[in-house]
Task: structure prediction
Amino acid sequence: QVQLVESGGGPVQTGGSLRVSCAASGLTFSSNAMGWFRQVPEQEREFVAAISWNEHTIYYADSVKGRFTISRDNAKNTVYLQMNNLKPEDTAVYYCAAHTAAQLMRDLGRANYWGKGTLVTVSS
Result:
């Protein structure tokens, strides 16, 4: 059974930083692209970032470029999202996702597997 478990969310002030993590199990982590999405109530889930299995390809949403960094540690089956210079509009539930290709997550907003999410709240 595939499990993606996010952690590290919480409250933070505008301009602050936070790192969320996602621990994966039940899948061949090193063969999967990993990504992060986010969602606020009554809005569609939106793509944030994705990284290929070998880290050679990385995509970001325009809204987070230059502020967020996605990375992965295949030895630990973990993907990270470092978020800097946070803004109130970054407030959302952040979901970890796994797919065969990073581009599919970016272009189609789809994933084969999803975590349950971790809430990030940025206060002004």
